[in-house]
Amino acid sequence: MPWIKITATLFILIIIGLLLVPHDLTHLSTADSETRGDAAHFPAFLLLTLLLFSILSPNRPTTFRITASAVIAATLALGTEWLQSFTPGRMASAHDLMANGLGIAAAISGLWLWKTNTCSGFSWQKKLHLLATCVIASALTWPYVQHLSARLNAQKQFPVLSDFHTAGATYLWKTQNDAQASLSKHQPASLEVTLPANSDFPGINYLPGPQNWQTYHSLHLTLINPGSTFQLGIRIDDDGDCRQHKSRFNAQRPIKPGENHLIFQLNTIRQAPENRELNLNAVQRLLLFSQKNPQAQKFSIVRMWLE
Fold first, then answer.
1. Distances (CA, A) of 227 to 123, 257, 300
2. 33: closest CA among 109, 75, 84?
3. 301 is in which domain, residue-wise?
4. Are 127 and 17 contained in the same domain?
5. Is the pLDDT of residue 225 over 90?
6. What domain count does the chain have?
7. Is-contact 221 206, C-beta < 8 A?
8. Dihedral angle at the C-alpha atoms of 207, 211, 216, 222, nearest 10 degrees?
9. Which DSSP string do the residues of 222-249 spell out, in sequence order?
10. Which one, of 106, 115, 15, 105, lies nearest residue 56 by Cα?
11. Which segments of the chain does DSSP mark as H helices, in order?
12. Pairing with 112, which of 38, 46, 47, 88 sits 20 to 30 Å away (CA)?
């Protein structure tokens, strides 16, 4: 029926539009973007492929419609990812492309089972396909569910930002530029971080989503350095455009051997950006990093909190 094709076409255009519309992702964490992409792109391209099949002429052979749907969907998957690299606030992602491909594969294999005469009724092949699709969808969604769960737990223990008494706390931390991190096997509970040598700004990001620090006076971090003294940078972003050095809070602190207790006054953090104030009502990111050290540096994050 014509209205079915019109409705399917509108949904296809909406999906493509959502993939290409400019979006302010300057404050969205890498962890968020990867897990959201995996969680959303799989069902989006599964649905897109099914919709493409529905608008192709039923007078065509089923195999042609399935093949054409797969080719068009794959072209859209590659094309939208490529166009996202030119779209403000968007970026091309291998994670998204993988999820797109899995969504297309799930759709065309399902269409093949249901639309051809290879099996009738709700056969074991169809049951297996449905199970595999659900498993893939769950696997792609699970990291995002874990990240959301970690955010909820962080909200419950706020103003303690991290203490690593539960493994879920690590989901709010994301390494960058070849840095490595793992939960300590020793007491006290901590996150052990290794910053590689001769790397551009290796570090670890704390990515809790928007947090309101407005009513507090200071940020506290307890770190343990098992080696020699080194300089550690700290960066704090709000929900504004923090891409420029002058538009965010940046500081350097010497980390001496043994336990270090760092204190940052929130009023200083607020006034750090030029031409504006940092929005302490919506703190999005805290980054601990180093600058091209000649040797690898190790330290442990024991606790981070507000007072």
1. 62, 6, 11
2. 84
3. 162-306
4. yes
5. yes
6. 2
7. no
8. -20
9. EEEESSS-EEEEEEEE-SS---SGGGSE
10. 115
11. 2-20, 30-55, 62-84, 94-115, 124-157, 266-270
12. 38
Token pair, residue 37, equals: 């992409």
236 contacts 269 by C-beta, under 8 angstroms = yes
The number of beta carbons lying within 10 Å of the beta carbon of residue 141 is 16
Q: What is the pLDDT of residues 111-144, one digit of tens each?
A: 888 776 555 666 777 788 888 888 888 887 787 7
Looking up tokens 């709010």, which residue turns up? Answer: 172
Over 90: is that where the pLDDT of 167 sits?
A: no
| pLDDT score for 161 | 92
Q: What backbone torsions phi and psi does residue 148 show, to the nearest 5 degrees?
A: -65, -40
User: Which among 168, 170, 207 has a CA at the least distance from the CA of 192?
Assistant: 170
Answer yes or no: are the C-beta atoms of 20 and 84 closer than 8 Å: yes
> What is the rounded radius of gyration, in angstroms, for the C-alpha atoms of the chain?
24
Bridge partners (DSSP) of residue 218 are 265
- What gap in Å lies between CA 186 and CA 257, rounded to an integer? 18
Say if residue 208 is in the same domain as residue 122: no
Rounded to whole angstroms, what are the CA distances from 213 to 72, 155, 197, 252, 280?
A: 48, 12, 34, 21, 5
User: What separation in angstroms does the CA of 285 have from each of 144, 212, 213?
Assistant: 18, 12, 12
The pLDDT value given to residue 92: 66
Element (H, E) at 304: strand 297-306
Residue 92: its H or E element: none
Tell me if 157 is assigned to some domain. Answer: no
